[in-house]
Each structure stands twice: as C-alpha cells, then as structure tokens.
Amino acid sequence: MKTSCPLPKFDFDVITLGHGGGGLLTHRLLQNGVFDILGNDLLDQQHDGASFPLSGNVAFSTDSYVISPFIFPGGNIGELAVNGTVNDLAMCGAIPKYLSLSFIIEEGLSMSDFFQVLLSIKQAAHKAEVKIVTGDTKVVEQGKGDKLFINTSGIGIIHPGASIHHKRIKPGDQIIVSGCIATHGIAIMSVRKGLEFETTIVSDTVNLNHTITGLLDRFGNDIKFLRDPTRGGIASVLNEVAELTRLGFSIDQNNLPIMEQVEGACEMLGLDPLYVANEGIFIAIVNRNVATDFLAQLNADSNGTEAAIIGEVTLDHPGKVVMKSRIGGKRVVNFLTGDQLPRIC
Amino acid sequence: MKTSCPLPKFDFDVITLGHGGGGLLTHRLLQNGVFDILGNDLLDQQHDGASFPLSGNVAFSTDSYVISPFIFPGGNIGELAVNGTVNDLAMCGAIPKYLSLSFIIEEGLSMSDFFQVLLSIKQAAHKAEVKIVTGDTKVVEQGKGDKLFINTSGIGIIHPGASIHHKRIKPGDQIIVSGCIATHGIAIMSVRKGLEFETTIVSDTVNLNHTITGLLDRFGNDIKFLRDPTRGGIASVLNEVAELTRLGFSIDQNNLPIMEQVEGACEMLGLDPLYVANEGIFIAIVNRNVATDFLAQLNADSNGTEAAIIGEVTLDHPGKVVMKSRIGGKRVVNFLTGDQLPRIC
Amino acid sequence: MCLAIPGKIISIAGQYDGVFRIGKVAFYGIMKEVNLCMVPEAVIGDYVLVHVGVAISIVDEQEALLTLEYLEKMDEAKELKFPVT
Amino acid sequence: MCLAIPGKIISIAGQYDGVFRIGKVAFYGIMKEVNLCMVPEAVIGDYVLVHVGVAISIVDEQEALLTLEYLEKMDEAKELKFPVT
Amino acid sequence: MKHLSEYRDPGLVQQYLYELHRITQGSWTLMEICGGQTHSLVKNGILDMLPPGITMVHGPGCPVCVTPVSVIDEAIYLAQQPGVILCSFGDMLRVPGSSTNLLEAKAKGADVRILYSPLEAVQLAVANPSKEVVFFAVGFETTAPANALSVIQAHKLNLSNYSILTSHVLVPPAMEAILQDQENTIDAFLAAGHVCAIMGMEEYYPIAEKYKIPIVITGFEPVDLLQGILMAVQQLENGEYQVQNQYARAVNRQGNILAKETIHEVFEISDRTWRGIGNIPCSGYEVTEMYRKYNSRLKFDLNLPYVAENKECISGAIMKGLKKPFQCPNFGNKCKPENPLGAPMVSSEGACAAYYHYASTQVSQYS
Amino acid sequence: MKHLSEYRDPGLVQQYLYELHRITQGSWTLMEICGGQTHSLVKNGILDMLPPGITMVHGPGCPVCVTPVSVIDEAIYLAQQPGVILCSFGDMLRVPGSSTNLLEAKAKGADVRILYSPLEAVQLAVANPSKEVVFFAVGFETTAPANALSVIQAHKLNLSNYSILTSHVLVPPAMEAILQDQENTIDAFLAAGHVCAIMGMEEYYPIAEKYKIPIVITGFEPVDLLQGILMAVQQLENGEYQVQNQYARAVNRQGNILAKETIHEVFEISDRTWRGIGNIPCSGYEVTEMYRKYNSRLKFDLNLPYVAENKECISGAIMKGLKKPFQCPNFGNKCKPENPLGAPMVSSEGACAAYYHYASTQVSQYS
Ligand code: SF4
Ligand code: SF4
Ligand SMILES: [Mg+2]
Ligand SMILES: [Mg+2]
Ligand SMILES: [Mg+2]
Ligand SMILES: [Mg+2]
Ligand SMILES: [Mg+2]
Ligand SMILES: [Mg+2]
Ligand SMILES: [Mg+2]
Ligand SMILES: [Mg+2]
Ligand SMILES: [Mg+2]
Ligand SMILES: [Mg+2]
User: In Å, what is the CA distance from E135 to each residue of B239, E41, E73, E162?
Assistant: First the structure.
C-alpha cells in the first residue's frame, strides 16, 4: 500500500549491517524511523521492554512472518504481521491489546521499502486498535535472510463472554467459514518465481478482531472454537480439531466459498484449495441453535459477506474430516504431508 | 551443551520446507519434538495462543536472535534466546513469567542440532523459572536464512519494590557493572570466519533474573536503572542513558572488570571492549548510599563475583560519557557508529 | 497424470522469444502465457487444453455438446434418477 | 596505522601450507597462527610483533628494559611527580 | 469454468450412475490408465457409487510412480553438482531415490527449482549463463511435446547450458505388459485422454483386437469417467471389444500431428525401466543422437551404480491391477505419504497416495 | 600482557609528564606520523596532559585516510563484478568512494569479506577455485611484506584466481612533502615505530639533516609516546636535529632485511596519489612486471573515469598539520563518523574520527 507520508531523511538508501550493530546507526534508525512512526506512550519508554498494568485472563500469542515476496498483491509483510497476531489473539477469544514487533532485516533492504512496511504496520495497528509497545531490530548479512522477516507477539484480554476450547465441541455443532478460501495463498503463488500467472486476486489480509468481538458479545459461549486457517489451509485446521476431539467433521464441497479465479488457479497448478493458506478468514464451530443468527451477523459484517455454514460435527468417522463432493460422493480429507507442491504431471 | 536426552525418532535427519508447511510434517515436528520437550500445562493447549490469568503491572519484551554460529563456545542460540528475554524483563524490574518462542529455520538444519537447541531452551527456561507458553515454527528456503533464528517474547510481573526509570537517575548515583565486559562478543568473534583465534573464552550467557530479584528485594527503589549491555556494549547503554537524562556519566577504565584473554583479543583485532557485545552481565545505576552494600550482595552471587563500581553520574559534561583512562587521562566515549569492524591497519 | 485444463485464448503474440507462437490463455479469469505452436489453427476465443504451458489440442465445441447429450441419445435413460447417498 | 602487538611464540611448525614457516603466538592467553618467515631466528618463547598475521620483528628484551629505565638514567627526574588531574 | 464445470454436474452424474447400475449384469474389472483419472475417481468419491459388479483398478499412468529409483538418483546426483540448477515439476521432489529424495537434497544445499513448464527452464538457462540448467523431463506422451519443444528452443537460442534428464514412458507398451501378465484380470481399459490428445487412437486398435479387450479413451471429470465406464461396460455386457472415444472434444483419431512431429524431431523410442514393473522394451523416449548435447546423461557422463528397487513395495502388482493399495502390508503403516516406501505413495496421483488421501469412508478403515 | 602493560603504567606516565613539563620552555609543534599513535594519544587522554607549549598534529599515517577516492571506486567496482570476492581489512569498508562505500556495496549484493590477514585471502582463493579473490592491499611499509607474501604464496601454489589491488604508500616521501609545504609549522616528527620495524632508520637521517628537524622513532603505548615526545622536545630545546630511536625494542638501524627483500621481490616504487594531498612522486608501491598477473588493475583491465576529491574536505591540510580537525567547518555537522565527508572521519585512526570519538573533555566542545 502506497502512502503519501514522506520518508524520513536518512544518509543511507539501504539498510546495512551497521544499522543492526547497536550503535549510532541503529539508534538513528529507531529514533527517526521506528519510534517516530509507531510511537505511543508505552513504546516511547525506550527501555528494553514495556510496562503497563494488566488484569484478567490474558491471551498471549506469537508468530514469525517469512512471506516472499514481502510486498505482495494486496499487502505487505507488515500488515500481515500485525493482522496475523491480532487474529491469533482474537481466535483465543481475546481482545488484542499490545503487540511486540521484531525485525530481522537482510542487509541491502531498501530504506523506502522498509518505511512502506512500517507505515503499513502503523495503519494496521491503528485499525485493529492495538498498541505496539516494544520492539527489536536485527540486521543479518546478504544471503542470510530474505529481505525482511517480522515477528509479532501479542497480549490480549479474554472477552468476558468467551469460552473457546476444543473440548467444548459437540456433535451437531455447525462449522462456519467466514469468507472465501485460498485467496491469500493463491495471490502469493501468482508472483512466485517459476509459477507466475496474471490475476486480479489480491491477498485478503485483514484484522478480524472487531468482527470476533461483535460475535462474542452476542453469542458468547455458544461459540465453541475459532481458528484462522493460515498455513495448511482449512483442511489442516479441521484435521487438528478432529484429532484433538476424536469427533467427525463433515463438510460439503458445494458450500465452500471460493472465488472463481482462485479455483481456476488451483485447477491449473493442480492444487487443492482446502490446503492453500488463508489470511482474512476464520473457521468457527458454533452451537447449532445459533448458527443461522451467527451467519447472519457475519454476513452483515464486511469481513464476512461470503461466510457460509460448510458442515457440521458428527459422531460418524471419529477423528476424520470427510467432505461430500460436488457430485455427492464422499472422501476423507487428510492432513497434508509437507508443503503442497504444484501437481503438474 | 550436549545432553544425554535421546533425540526423538524422525523420518528426516534434516528439516525440510515441508516441516514448515503447516501439514503433517509440521504437526509431527511440533507434537513429537517441541511439545514433548517443552510441554507444560499452558503450552499443551495447542491453540494459536496461550491463556492464563494475570494481574498487576506487567513488563513485555521481545528480541530476535540471529547469532552466527548458532552453536558457539559456551552455549547456543536457544539458551541465549531464553536468557536474553528473561534478562530484558529483569532489567525492567520484572519477574519473568511467560515466554513465547518462535523459530525461523533454514531448510537443511540438522534435526539433531535443532533438538540440541530445544533441550537447551528447556533447561534455560527451567533454570530461569519461566514457562514457554506459545510458539511458532517457520521454515525458509536454503539461502534465505542462517540455519536458525529465534524470537522470544516475554511477560513478567513488575517486582513490587521496583521503580526502574531513567528519569530517577540523579548526580552522585553509582554505576555498577555486574561482571567482566566483552566476554560474549569475543567468544563469538573467536569462531567468526576470517578472524578466528584459539581461546578458552566462552560466552557467559546466563539468566540474571534471580540475581535481580534478590537485589530488588533488598534495595528496592534505590535501584534507579538496570540494563543488560548486549549489542553495542556498555558504551552504547551509557550513551543512551546520558542522552535521555542529559546527565554526565563518568567511568574509570581501571575499574572495568575484563578478562585477560578478552583484552588480548581486543588488542589483536583493534577492538574497543567498551563496544563489544555482552550477555551475562548488567549495568545498574543505584543510589550512592546503597552502592557498597549492593556491590557486596552482587559479589556474593555467582553472577556477580567480578562486579565493580565503575563510575558515577555527574553534572559535568551533560549528555556525555567520559572515561578516565588507565594513565589518568580523560576521553569522551561516544556512540559507536555502525558495527565495530576489526581495525587492522 | 498429465494435468491439462481448458482455457480460452485471449490474445496471440506472433513469436515466443523470437522463436515460437505464444498467447495468453484465461482460466476462470486468471491468465497464463501459453505456447501455441502445436495448435497453429487456434484463434482468439478458442478453448485449448493446456499442459505444462503448452496447448496440446483445441476443444471441439460440437463434440463437447455431444458428450453432454450422450445419455439423451440412449432411449432408456429418460425418467428415473439413481438415489445417491 | 599498522596495529601490531607483541605475542609470545608457543610453537613453531615447519611450513605454512607447505610453503612458509608458521607458529602459534599467544596474546594474553589467546592464540593465533602467525607467519614467522620474516623472523627466521625467532625461537619458542620469543616475543614477536605481529601485524596482519605476520611477525615483523622480534622484541629485544634488553632494549625493552632500557626504555623502561630511560628516566632513571636522566639525573634530574628523581623525586617529584607531576600532578595529574 | 467452461468445458470443466459441465462435466461436474451432479444431475448428469446421477443419470449416468442410474444407467450404469441399470445395465451392469456381470462382474467387470476396469483399469483407468491414468493417474489423473484415479485422482478424479477418488477425489470425487465415485468409487463407492459404482455398481458392486464393477471394480476399478489403477493403472501405471503416473510418471511420478513409474520413474525408476536409478533415474531419481541421477536427478539427485545432478542437483548436487556445483553450478547445476535442477528444474522439475513439483511432485517429483518427494519421490524416494535409493537413499534420499530431491526435497531433502534441496534442503541440504542442492539447487532444485520447481517450475510449471520446461519452457521456463529454458528461460532460466538464458538468465543464468554461468550455470548448467537441467530439466527433469518425466512424463507420458502428453508431456513429450513440451519437453521436446524446450530442447528445440534451447537449440535455436544456441544455449550450451541447457539439457534434459529424460524419463519418458509410453502407454501402449505398458498396456500390453499388463495384458500379458499371467495373473491379469483386467476386462477393459479407460485409456488416458490427454495422452490420446497427442497420439490419437491408432495405436489402440491393434491392442483391442489382439487381446479382445474394450478400450475407451476417457476424460478426467466425473461425467467423463462415468460415461467412459458406461461405454466400457456396455461393450463388456455385449461381448464387444472396440476402441471408443469418450473424450472426442479433445481427441481425434490421428492425434496432434504437429506435436507428434515435434516429439520425433527430438526423441527416439527406447527401452525403459518402469519402477515396480521392470524393463519394458520400446516403452520410452530418449533424446536422439542429433540433439545429444541436450541429453543430460551424455553431457554429464552419468554412470551411477545400479540400484535395486525396494522389495517391500508391491507397486508393480498395484500398477498392473493385481492388487489394491490396501492389500499391501505396508500401506498406512510403514508406508505413508510423509515417508513413502514406494512411488505410488508419493504423488497424490499415485494409486496408494490417492487411496490414502482421498479414500472414501468405506475404504478409510484401511488407512 | 608483557611488552604492553609496562608501557601503560600510570606511575611511569606521571614521571614522564613531570619531566616533560619541567624541560619544556619553547613552543613546539610535533607531528606524530602514524594514525595508531594518534589513536593512542587521544584514547588515553594524553593530549590534555601535555605542557601548553607542546602542540601535537596528526600526520598522514593512516592508510584508510590516504587511499584516494579513485582507488576506493576501483575496489567497489571489483567487488560488484559477479564471481569476484573482494577481501579487505575491516576499516576500509566505510571509506567513501565517489558515490558509495564498500559496506553499502556489500549490502547491495557485492561479495565483500573482512579478513584479518592477506594470507587468509590466499586460503580463500584455494577454497574457491571458481571465484576470483581480490585482496585490497592498502597500507604503509609495515603491511607491504604481508601483502607481498600473499602474492608469493599464491604464486607458489600456482593460483590463477588471486590478485591484489594495491594502494601502498611510503612514509619518507610524505614527510618531505609536508616539510616542503610553504605553510609548514612542524618542528619535530615522531616517526612510525612499526614502519621502522620493517624499514629501519636509514631513510630518516637525510631528512633530519636536510630539513634540520628532529625525528624520533616512537612506539604506540603511552610511555612510548611520552618518551618520544620528551626526546623530541629535548632536542628542540637543545637546538638539535637527530634521528633517535625510542622504540629500540622493536626497531633497529637496518630494519628487517628479509621483510625488505620480500617487498622488493613483489613491489617496485611508483608515484602515488594521496587522498587530500595529491600526487607525491615515488611515494608508493606497485606490483612488479614479474608478478603482473597478481595485479588486479592489470588482470581486470581497470580503467575507471577520474574522480575529483570532495572539495569540502580539508583533510589535506589536516594531514599536513596545517589545520586541526575542529577547524574544519564540516567537523561534527556535515561530516560525522556515520556519514563521513572525508576519509579522516572514517577509521578511528583518522585524525578527524579520533578527535570525534575520543576527544578529551577540553576539545569535546567541538564535537
Ligand atoms: S503402500 Fe507403499 S509399499 Fe505398498 S505398494 Fe503402495 S507405495 Fe508400495
Ligand atoms: S571533518 Fe570531515 S570534511 Fe573536515 S577534514 Fe575531517 S574528514 Fe574532511
Ligand atoms: Mg501464533
Ligand atoms: Mg498465526
Ligand atoms: Mg492462527
Ligand atoms: Mg532488542
Ligand atoms: Mg483468504
Ligand atoms: Mg527486547
Ligand atoms: Mg535484549
Ligand atoms: Mg537488553
Ligand atoms: Mg504460528
Ligand atoms: Mg559478558
């Protein structure tokens, strides 16, 4: 995302090892760059950590972001890193509050790309209403990184109405997906060396916390389980829950929301969209009684217009995910083994 | 550190991209590896985050560790990552409680090295009495990382007696360093390609939280400031505080604890130990009244046998760090510019 | 084996790297450069079967309709439906 | 320029990569391989000045003592000390 | 998606199933040749919908499955050479060689790239003049024109740093090898539609005639497969053995003549070892003498020691249709997709992996 | 550390200072030739301890400072060539060329390695036969034997992928250039001990004689420097102009004969441009014709366009002792160690950087 905010003036147009050395260059980069852009009352303590009062049940989550390319159709690694941890906290039933932000920069990263990422971080944090309160910057040599890695860790306060635990899932519960699957993964794939294709698909990275809070406000503990199906796709999330609960998870291919272009790309590359990474969507498992209302509220939210009930929890085939195919047949949807490799031949 | 704990049996002897794909290989690596080794009641929730009750003033800190080589004389990146964040929390005056743990692995990392690191993490967490409650594992392609990067983020509870803030520093306060300087940086330098030398110096990485808690218990708010002088060395920490407080910081070279071999290496490479990275030491700025007792308690602690009062805060030369040399001359100790490069010629 | 899917030719460039005929082929709105030298008679708007970046045949629209009407040409299959579980 | 520091020869190997004389030199307990071909008369225990991995001279112990005793040989400098701030 | 979604229509599928159930009297064993067909049958849950009298067995039409251990070893060896970039289709990376696979070799430092097309490998060779680019040219007749084109293009561009490591196999010789097996139980074939898009139908008439077996050239979508099965069963019930073309929208009698010319420009027919099956005479393609400098085997003077197949894997019997994957004692225990003993467990088109991944609820007891 | 700590003894330092204060009557300007001496004077806070009559000015003896822009550009150019590994001592990496420095070039992808010794560069060439290893051979007479040795070693190992990019400079011609300057104010020199450890003392007698100036060959530790200053001031007070050897533990009259032979095996005397000063005839070394294949300039046919020095930097005046760093209008504002305008602000041995980093409390008002 391009912004009109001017780049601070630096003596360097790329990041060098010196910017990670802990000396003056590091100090300047942080002072004139990071703190200026992301500054808030807690971050500005310039200590090795932030302090603030907290009480209640908290959620704590971490993720490292290693996406390549780090600026991709629909976004960049910065907003991804904010949204990712915000969403992980939301999936715990928490209201995200504080983030840490840690960069691993490969020397040679252009200053302007770095600032583009920083500005996206600022905007994403603003939108998600979280504060970035502590951070870290490391620079590694050329060839020892991939331009930019980001770790965010986050602290949230568990929503008073939330009671998210896989143990609470019961047969009859409905499985809901909040939006089109595989969008993000295919957007990234479209710019991968050797597999490129033209598409208007862009990543759907977005913060889901406000959407989740709204749902928890109304449906409370009728929401049994929440998860954002990032790496490994929705198949992996459902398999993990199936394994943990020893219940059956039954879904219907006809109900899976997916964009036409995404389907086309999957056909072309021989990929199964069930295993493709997602960003801006989540899976909810909710009490059957509230499913329709839950879906209605979700459909009225900009993050859930394509939401659908895709299946339900069952006593059949315990520990397994089974999908009814478009033509009415059934198949087991297993764990993906490793990375999904394009199946060409 | 070698341990006798057996390596879990895996089908792979190195980590491949598939281990980061979110599918079965990731699942297995986490189940049979990470969770088995690091498991505790909070981590085992296998959610995308951990939940626990918390109340009071908390500290929150993050750091990414990119050390090369990742197994080095005296330790490895795993214990470094635990100790580093534990120490950053301790430097905030907090009692470290919960850590997140996030790996960025370059494909090809040997499983046995990875498990050696994991075991060190377990031991370091045990020693520091912190729980690793949430984590993440990413795998990047060959040439896109440097074998293993680790991020740890941590939450601690501020010690009830603590009142750590640079604004509390006053002229007359004493500057104490808890141990020999530059040890860690020189231990790492000794195995750097192109600069290698033989030495018995090993990294002094260690958790300092119990030491700090003991000092806070007794000296409370007479401790004005704590910082572990990692990257950039003690010169950088003192310059940062000088800049923040606009006070003068005056130190005496004769009082700086430093190992002979470390001095020898610095002479040989033309490095200034004031700028060399440290691990197992901290700088404390304390009320002059308690300085002697503080030092005595520190000297009685295994992490502080070499501790010394190295100087004091003054109204002279505001914003500057000045060192009295061995022969009685004075010089300004500035910020380091970039990385300290070996000065050969 | 031999994953091949039908796509519609959107544009045709004369040459592939100065050597071969190439074109843009759309699959559900995504587009890929495809080598068209094995289907010289293909024109814009045709559907071609594409395998590993090469168009291997033009989809015959007449035959496509016949396949879909195959059952109707069999007298016996008019009324009943097989009950699928 | 020309950072060079004195170290003590701990061991001497005949050859540097089959070509030159090398040895291990200790500086305050750390050790470095050093090329000794410019100081062929140096023996184990000698101190040599080392610059960028090459020993450039042997430290003369007699002369070293004389430097330290230089002032004593100057009649005038016996009692007083200069007050350093 | 036009020419795709129509063939996934549930109503049409039901009509075909009805008709198939209606006409099936006998007990028939049909082999779908192509891994893509297996994939589609399993992924769509079609197997459980078929009349009890019909047994589908999965043929050898998966290049990932039939590439022998020794060729995988060659690819790994080349990938490990400094300065070599080995390019491959994605699903070849997990196939086990004698001691490792390309994915692990890559993790240990070999330069292995996944490409969509051999033509992109040529571009890579142009962009990296100081490297040797090797394309791992596996495939059946369908892929041969693209691989051949890459050689012609490299030749026209005067590239000296491009070559292909071939493991090209041909369908008709494999069909005959299956039919000649003592224990053969196959009553009819669904031939591989995309192979025939290139090769046409001619080569199948002599086989149908000689072995008195129906051969229906079939597409890959549910309606295609059901129609193909229906056509084959109709023949069987009527005692006929013709070559029929279900996939007429893509296949005509003479095939793609230009594509065949391209193949014959670059390749000549050679003997070929099939993983799990063994040597089949005249069952593959090798680069002709004229293009020898694009043949990686000659260029790098490959001469690796012979490696025997893993005896524990019964993939030969599976690919000949003599056994089902779940009849293999290793299926799902010693042999799983994450650590395959044999190649059919690797690609999701491999018969064993297809069963493992997409097994219908009925057969899932075996996984 | 033996032969080091003794010369840092505070008691001894005080005695020397006492003696120096006692005998200093006149007003004397001394130049320490060597950047290492500058470094030590500033780092130990010695300047403020000297009698008010004594002014120290910092000589050109910092190879980092005197390497011209055009040579830095050559190094950057070579580092940017594919297949070239450029090896350098650490402090050369921040020196500004005409548009960038090696550190930034490295950040942008050039393969630049920091080594402790040129002999390690030879090892790197052995280990990387497919790469060209270039060692950036800067230095005064002290470093010349090591750089020459690396060429001899490469030659004996028959390496065809090793060469050196020289920027070797010589002390005596620079001293004469300074003395010949109209505005020269230098009354005495502290000559560079380590240079003399190689070269001996002979070349200095004619200079002392010709310019009637005391020259004291001096070491680098506080006691060395104070003793050297004391010896020079004694001469000045007595109206003498001899060559004296304070650093006799490391320097003898004839120098290291073997080292000089090694230099002359590989190098010959050439004209050399000094950054900030300009061309000085016969003031450097270049690789001889016999070893031409180890000369990076010839090997890579370097022929970069001429680049003028930055006019804003008065480093020439500083290195000749005509100005102090804080008299430069850019010092501490437009020119700082993190973004140096001129070379003396780069290395911590550079006069400007030494003042900036280690400036005593008295001079720190200027930083
Ligand atoms: S299950 Fe494994 S071992 Fe058995 S036939 Fe299939 S691939 Fe071979
Ligand atoms: S301060 Fe900078 S510009 Fe001025 S003389 Fe020194 S290096 Fe040159
Ligand atoms: Mg997480
Ligand atoms: Mg996440
Ligand atoms: Mg998540
Ligand atoms: Mg940090
Ligand atoms: Mg999505
Ligand atoms: Mg931190
Ligand atoms: Mg830290
Ligand atoms: Mg810290
Ligand atoms: Mg994660
Ligand atoms: Mg230390």
Answer: 57, 31, 14, 8
Q: Which domain holds residue F203?
A: 4-58+188-242
Q: Which has the closest alpha carbon to E91: E344, E347, E355, E338? A: E347
The answer for F 56-115 residues in CB contact with E (under 8 A) is 82-83
pTM: 0.90
Rounded to 5 degrees, what are φ and ψ at F4? -135, -60
- Cα separation values, F313 from E94, F102, F323, F325, F365, Å: 61, 20, 12, 10, 20
Amino acid at D71: L
Structural domain total, chain C: 1
Residues B80 and B148 reside in one and the same domain: yes
CA B317 from chain center: how many Å? Answer: 30
Distance E104 CA to ligand 1 centre (A): 20
Task: Please tell me which of the candidates F7, F117, F156 has its beta carbon nearest to residue D19.
Answer: F156
Query: Which chain B positions have a beta carbon within 8 Å of A57's beta carbon?
Result: 51-54
Q: Which among B89, B134, B335 has the least Cβ separation from residue A60?
A: B134
Residue of B nearest to E335 (CA): B11
Residue F123 sits in a domain whose CATH number is: 3.40.50.11740
- Ligand nearest the Cα of residue B91 is 10
> Do the domain assignments include residue C83?
no
Residue F81 lies in a domain: yes
What does B71-136 look like in DSSP terms, one character per residue? EETTEEHHHHHHHHHHHHHHHTTEEEEEEEEEEEEETT-BHHHHHHHHHHHHHHHHHHT-EEEEEE
Check contact D-F (3+ Cβ pairs < 8 Å).
Answer: yes
Residues 6 or more apart in contact with residue B203 via CB below 8 angstroms: B72, B73, B74, B75, B80, B183, B184, B187, B188, B279, B280
Asked if residue B340 belongs to a domain, the reply is: no
- Nearest of D55, D16, D23, D4 to residue F152 by alpha carbon: D16
Give which of A11, A12, A29 to mutate to test F binding, by max F Cβ within 10 Å. A12
DSSP strand E in E210-359: where? 215-218, 243-245, 267-274, 278-287
Number of domains into which chain F is organized = 3
- Domain span holding position A78: 17-158
Which residue range forms the structural domain that includes residue C62? 5-73
What are the pLDDT digits (tens) for E27-38? 999 999 998 898
The span from the CA of E6 to the CA of E10, in Å, is 9
In a domain, E250, yes or no: no
pLDDT category, F59, cuts 50, 70, 90? confident
CA nearest F91 in B: which residue? B343
Residue D80, domain member (yes or no) = no
CA-closest residue to ligand 1 atom 1 = E331
**A:215-254 residues touching chain B, CB 8 A cutoff:** 227-228, 230-233, 236, 240, 244
Q: What mean pLDDT do residues A283-308 have?
A: 98
Whether ligand 2 lies within 6 angstroms of the CB of F331 is answered as: yes
> Which of D28, D50, D85 is nearest residue B261 as measured by Cβ atoms?
D28
Residue F304 located in a structural domain = no
Atom 3 of ligand 2: nearest residue by CA position: F313
In chain A, the number of structural domains is: 2
Q: pLDDT, tens digit, for every residue of E208-262?
A: 999 999 999 999 999 999 999 999 999 999 999 999 999 999 999 999 999 999 9
Ligand 1 contacts (CB < 6 A) are E 312-315, 318, 325, 328, 330-331, 335, 340-342, 344-345, 352
F154 to A305, D50, D55, F120: CA distances (angstroms): 70, 21, 19, 11
Mutate to test the pocket of ligand 1, among E335, E336, E338 (most ligand atoms within 8 A of CB): E335
Is B50 within 8 Å of B98 (Cβ atoms)? yes
Name which of B87, B85, B100 is nearest A60 in CA terms: B100
Question: Does B299 reside within a domain?
Answer: yes
